[in-house]
Give the backbone structure.
Amino acid sequence: MWLLRFSTSSIGKKILMASSGLLLILFLVAHAAGNAAIFFGSNAFQTYADTLHSLPVVVFVFGVGLFAVLIVHIFIGIQLFLQNRKETASRYAVSTKVCENTLASSTMPYTGLLLLLFLLVHVFGFGVNPTDTKVSVLVVNLLGNFFYGLFYLFSFCVLAVHLSHGFWSMLQTFGFNHPRYNDGIMKITYIVPGFFLVFFGAITLYFMTGLGANY
Amino acid sequence: MSNIDLTLQIWRQKNSDALGKLETYTLDKISTDMSFLEMLDVLNEKLTMEGIEPVAFDHDCREGICGMCGAVINGVAHGPEKETTLCQLHMRHFKTGDVLVIEPFRSRAFPIKKDLVVDRSAFDKIIQAGGYVSVNTGGTPDGNAIPISSHIAELAMDAAACIGCGACVASCPNGAAMLFTSAKISQLCLLPQGHAERKKRALSMVETMDKEGFGNCTNLRECEAVCPKSISIRNIARLNREFVRAAFSEG
């Protein structure tokens, strides 16, 4: 079947990796837009959360969709990592990297794994909520904890590193590479992760420093 | 003209099945006007005099256009000079006392035949999978009968500059052959003559590339940085587009 042949070919896997990555970035944008309610006070944030949860069908459909996208991104990522590792396993006595800026690109599987760890902590912290604490209170409690907040800040840095290769790499995989636009693409590649780092980092610092204790 | 003294560590391997290892040789009074391969010729003469098996290495034109030569010098395919094949690398770029580690182009798809000689026939298989380009038979066609803008002709020419040496595969941490395949596909898909088989070509060349055991591209750009013909990864972007278009519409 053509679709199976496509998704098992090396380029097909790249395309799936890039498409799922794009959807995950779009999810982050939506997530950031929702979280912006925090800066309008705890009532605004609680109203946002309640409104969202009053639409269980929407939450369910997006939840399942997001989970599927995540599984694709992780599964193919691991598959690529394992396939490529066969080649990498120290084949040269001396190995020199000619190309600069490879910190992000060569650590993609590892930053990805750290992000998965963060995701689990985040989902178990905020999603699974046995005590029925309001989310607007929960966020103060959790992020008010210094080490919890520090872990969040660290994870956002990891996210920024991951995206600083991922975003450009995604566009290259989709076939966007033209001398006229390449400079702009390189700038966006730093702006997008920078935005997420500053925005999510600001929320974390807001509560970590106690500024948002009575927001 | 000056002379330099070098220490060479060269990968010696009897055949594909034998275990290889790095052997150290010293070479004195090498003229800086020599090319890298001429330096290896001098070494081989010396080794022959001493009754040691000379180092096997691939070479042909020694003008940087055939794609036969190539080795990894201190971790860099074709050595430290940019956009230069090994045969066009000159000893003036080295100095007395340098230790040069010379290894073959390594990849799962390029088995070592002997010493620095590797079997790159996997590239031939990719080319064969590309098939043919349809042309009209009959009388000699008029010049410029098919209009091609100079911009497109230049892009196709840039892609056609690929000499198929394998440095991209050798330098890619994943051993991917994307730069090579993309250059070959770009060259043909850009020109109107190659359009008839465009989709079939993209599908079968990529399929062969995967089957031959090359790795997956993760956009690390190492290939572009070592390519002696400075083939751009813009060709890889074009290959991705070609492949997706073909996969979703062909057959």
Summary: Chain A is about 80% helix and 0% strand. The longest helix of chain A spans residues 56-88. Residues 2-208 of chain A form a domain with the 3 helical TM bundles of succinate and fumarate reductases fold (CATH 1.20.1300.10). Chain A has one domain: 2-208.
